[in-house]
Amino acid sequence: MTSWTVAPEPFDSPVAAALWRAYYTEVSDRWYLLHEGAPTPPEELAKGIASTTGSELAPPHGQLLVSRYGGEPAGCAGVRLVDARTAELTRVFVGRAWRGRGGGSALLDAIEEAARGLGADRMILDTRDDLVEARALYRRRGYRETDAHNNEPYADHWFRKDLRQRAETGTPAGKR
């Protein structure tokens, strides 16, 4: 039986770079197809991918996790502290070939533990209208929609989750 593994990955590794490119390409193309009727222009795509190093996902104030399915890199999720008790979830991605196999939940389990390890007791995130699968996953996993917590130009929805409780059992974290 093939299963998921999730482990920390340096933000600047070749695996992280490939997953960032796949993630960014997909979310950018979705936006461009919806609003412009065509995929992201190559120069815009290159500019967007190069616009961030991902260094905010490095310890001690952040973490990038990579999921593997059958040993092959299949997804990622990042977390960064925005203050001593609040972590922001970012770059949640499962490649198309591996969707529908529980990879999103595996990533969220692991990234929530990583956030707790950084000292956070709440997680926040933002997402867009067109990322309906992501919004559904967050809701299933106990994230609640809130008022805006930032002014990101592409954000349409903001979520929050109390990390002191485990969504799947309702028991306090660390008490299972």
UniProtKB/TrEMBL annotation:
Chain ranges of the N-acetyltransferase domain: 18-164
This protein's UniProt keywords: Acyltransferase, Transferase
Pfam families: Acetyltransf_1 (PF00583)
Gene3D superfamilies reported in the protein's UniProt record: 3.40.630.30
Keyword Acyltransferase appears in the UniProt entry: yes
InterPro entries xrefs: Acyl_CoA_acyltransferase, Bact_Acetyltransf, GNAT_dom
Keyword Cytoplasm: no
Protein name, UniProt field: GNAT family N-acetyltransferase
